[in-house]
Structures are given as C-alpha cells and as structure tokens.
Amino acid sequence: MPKVHITDTVLRDGHQSLIATRMRLADMLPICDRLDRIGFWSLEVWGGATFDACVRFLKEDPWERLRQLRQALPKTRLQMLLRGQNLLGYRHYPDDVVQAFVQKTASNGIDVFRIFDALNDFRNIRVSVEAVKQAGKHAQGAICYTTSPVHDLDSFIRMAKELEAMGCDSVAIKDMAGLLTPMATAELVKCLVAAVSIPIHLHSHATAGLAAMCQIKAVENGCHHVDTCISSFAGGTSHPPTESMVAALRHTDYDTGLDLELLQEIGFYFREVRKKYHQFESDFTGIDTRVQINQVPGGMMSNLSNQLREQGALGKMNEVLQEIPKVREDLGFPPLVTPTSQIVGTQAVLNVLTDTRYKNITNEVKFYLQGRYGKPPGEVNSIVRQQAIGNLDVIDCRPADLLEAEMDKLTDAIGNKAKSAEDVLTYAMFPEIGKEFLEQRNNNALVPETLEPLSQGDDKFCAVATEFNVTLHGESYHIKVTGTGHKTKDKRPFYVSVDGVPEEILVETLDQLIEGEATPGGRTGAKGSKRPRATSPGHVTTSMPGVIVDVLVKIGDVVSAGDPVLVTEAMKMETEVQAPISGKIIMVHVQKGETVNPDEALIEIE
C-alpha cells in the first residue's frame, strides 16, 4: 500500500482558522529551513484570506510574501487555495483577470492550485484550471462538502467525474466546516476512489472533534493525501495535528516517513509564535459540535467573532449562529465557504442586529439571488428574492460570460501607483484597500496593526479593565471595550459599547491635534464637530458600524423612499442604505472613507 502524504496548513489555513489570519511573514521565515527538511507533499502558504489580511491588516505585500517563502522553501511544493472565478476577492472577475492572476501566481512560486467554487458550479473554475495547466502546474479541483436536502453521495460522485474530465490532476474533498463523520468519510472516499483514476485528497477541519478519525477512515479506503497542521495551530476550527497523524501511521503500511522529532521542534517554535497574537484568540474556535447544525467553517468563525467584537455585538454570537442555517436555507443551501460564508454570515448578522429579518439586504445577497455567483444548489426563497431584487431577471449563464475584459482598465485606473502587474492584480482584488496599500507602500508609510504585549514573565495576557462604569456630569454610563482597530502614527480606534450602543472612539495624541483636522471617528469639519444624532424620520442611519464606500446623493437631490443614498461596508460586505422617506436632501454629513455608527444622522431628508 502507498504511504500517506501530508499537506501542512500552518502557514495558511491553520492561523486563518485560529487567529484570524494574522501571522506575519517575519514569524514564518525563521522556521522555513526546518519545514523544508520535513518532506511534506506540499505546504499550503497562500490564498484564502491571507491576501486580504496582508493588505488590510499586516501591511505586507502578499506577492513579496510569496516570493520570500518560495526562496526559503526551495525543496517543498507550495500550495494555495483559489476561489475559481472569484480568485481571492469577493466577486467574479473576467477571464483575462483570472488568467493573468494564475500566471503571475505560478511565476511567483505556487506549484499546486486547489481550486473550488463556493456553489460547486464548476463552470466557474474551468478557466482557472485551464490557466494552471497552461502554466505547467498542478490543478487540484475541490468539492465543497456539505450536508443538505440537495446534497448526496451521487452528487459528489458526479462532481468528481466532472473535475477529472476537466483535466484536474487530483480531487480534494474540502470539508471546510468539519461536517464529515468517520463512517460518511469511509463511504464517500471509497466511492470517489472507484469513480475516478486521479488521487483523492482530504481536507477536513477538526471543529466537531471528528477530523482525525475521518482521516484514518479515508486512508483505509484509498485516500493517501491528507491535510494536517502543526500541533501549535491544530485542533478546534483548524485541522488534526500533523505530529499526531504521523505518529498514528508510524510503523504501518501507511507510514508517512516524516521525522517526528523534527516536527516536534517545529511545533514548539509555533507555540511561542502563537503567544504574540493572543489578541486575536477567540472563545469560538475550540471543539464545538454545533457545527453539525450551523455549518460555520473555522476561518469564518474566528473572523466572525472578531468582526462582531468590532461591532460591539459579541454577545449576539449564539443568535447569529442560529440565524445562519435559516439564511442558508433561504439562499438554496449553498456550502458555507468563501465567499458564500461571508454572504450568508453578514446577512445573518444584519438580520439579528436589526428589528426585522431582511430589513437590510447586502449587495452581495442581491447579486447572489440574481445568479451572479452561479447556480444555487437548491431552490431559493422566492419571497426573499422578490424583496431583494424585485422583478430583475435571474441569469442562467456562466456569470463571467457577462463580464468584459478588465486588465487594461484596471491598469489605467491604478496608474503609476502600480509598479508591476502584480500591483495591478492587488488593486483588482481589493480596489479601495488595495489602492490605499499601494499609496502607503510608495510613500514608505505602511504601518501594521499593533500587537498587544504579553505580561512580563509568564504566558498570561495583560490584565486590563475592559468593562466599567463612567460618571460624567452626573450621568452614569456602562462602558464595555469590545475591540481595537488599526493604529496609525498618532491615532488608534477603540470599539466600545455605551449602555449597549456600539460606538467607535478614535484616540489621538493631544499635542499633535491641529485646528480643522479630522475629529474622532474620521469625521471632518471644525475641531470638535460631531454628526447629529438620528432623531427624525428623515435622518438616514446605518444598522451597524462601518465605513462609507460611496455617497450616491448630494444636497438638493430629490429622492423617493427606498432609493439608495449611501453604500457602506461592514464585515467586508457592502450594503446599500436607502432613503427612509421621500423628500429633498438638505444635508450630507459623510464623505467616502469615513467611519460611521448606527446612532448618527448621515444624511438629512425633508
């Protein structure tokens, strides 16, 4: 029997699942020599949320990260996760952008491309697979595993055959939420091995505590490639520990042949590294069998808790977890994996934080219900669809067939801020934060978010007050600090709740305040100015703290109730804010890029 081959995920999915994708390149490079000596089948190092986190939080060039990892790991295959026509962003890209992205990724060091579509609509991965093959790299087609009334064994067998016919070099079972059980794994792997002639890989998260057992059953039934993670970043919403799997298979016909003692050294290294990122640890990333019901994948869970904390709504987590399956059913049972996990998760948060389900519907949900992400696996809720898109036609073609080539337009749009084709692709993935990143890089002004120190002498976190009462002018307020944001040279946002109302406080160094400079919250105007509180039916507000992406009206415009007047971004999803009444715009209190809170009047209509 062939030995079992290991793909280790510590440099990508491991820290994405447990510490919100925050590990920095500086903590990866010192251990690369030992990782390279192990003999892994591959190391997963790129893709998923790493690109976003590098640009948004870590202020690292993701392409430079890839190049340095390639140089530091010369003997090991480097692997990435690619979202098919979504690439690493949250929308479908035209074919020319997909082809350019794959070509540049391959030339910068990726050997194995694990390619998936969130809906298992393989029309959306064909161009990526073809581009990978053209680049001479390994194209691995992934099946997003899920359970629902419309997913069964026969459907997964059909998918595997379709991927083989497409030219994929291997097939991965992508169990992103840890839904597989040992017996279901045995049956699924046995059927897939019989159905196709290419190797089967298993990627399963340990959220429900079952993944290691699933891997053993997979191995026994013909799967000889499994994903694990170095123990320091294993377990819970991450993956089974690499060292444990190597030990379990040692001295058997499936022996991996990997050096257990060297793996243990690597584990101790990452144990120390993890302490540096304690502020991103979550109470929601351990073993939790509720995943068998809510189906929330590991990376989504750590990011969701982080984002809810920033909204001052972490206490609503259980309600959100109960709402997610309901939204998923309304949308036709999509597997919960990026971007559908963000689409479903953000809408669930909106449904919980507002007084009426689907009172606010994100643009991404509207696009999804139009068919712009592909064909949903099951029937969608017709009432929700009508509420979201009205009588707009639902497309039935491959979504990218409706898109015009973009590379030339993107190159022109970013101009001299881009110094390479890779820079243009960074801008393509995330236009707003990508542009900001390139500007900061060109001005030598990149400042990563601050890492909170540990207390001296032990592994305990610094003990600071995060919940207290404040008395001001005779009035008492209950304050709870729910999170902190990215620190610039002299400013840092703190997310708090004041008597249960989410707020953002921007702390600035007093001796650097300048008359007329931006005031707390990013608000512009005279020093000390503040947007009015929303008190009138004509005051436009948001449902949750966020950032203004676009202002669609100006003073003097006449609008009807329901017309979009703003676009905001919260939790990486955009939402149109609509006029609450019909009337004339008499005041606009916001500009693009500003941070806003739910209690503020952003626009006034009368």
List keywords for this structure.
single chain, 606 residues, alpha/beta, eight-stranded parallel barrel, four-stranded antiparallel beta sheet, 18% strand, globular
Task: Describe the overall structure.
- The chain is an alpha/beta fold.
- 35% of the residues lie in helices and 18% in strands.
- The protein is built from 21 helices and 20 strands.
- The strands form 4 sheets. It has an 8-stranded parallel β-barrel, surrounded by 6 helices. It has a 4-stranded antiparallel sheet with strand order 9-10-11-12, covered by helices on one side. Strands 13-20-18-15 form a 4-stranded antiparallel sheet, with no helix packed on it.
- α1 (10-19) packs across α14 (298-310) and α20 packs across α21.
- It is globular and about 75 Å long.
- The N and C termini lie far apart (76 Å).
The outline comes out as globular
Strand order of the largest sheet: 1-2-3-4-5-6-7-8
Distance between the termini: 76 Å
Low-confidence stretches: 511-529
Estimate the helix proportion, in percent. Answer: 25-40%
Spatial extent as radius of gyration: 24 Å
What is the overall number of helices? 21
Decide which structural class fits the backbone: alpha/beta
Number of strands: 20
Strand share of the residues? 15-25%
Output mean pLDDT.
88
The profile of the biggest β sheet is: 8 strands, parallel, barrel
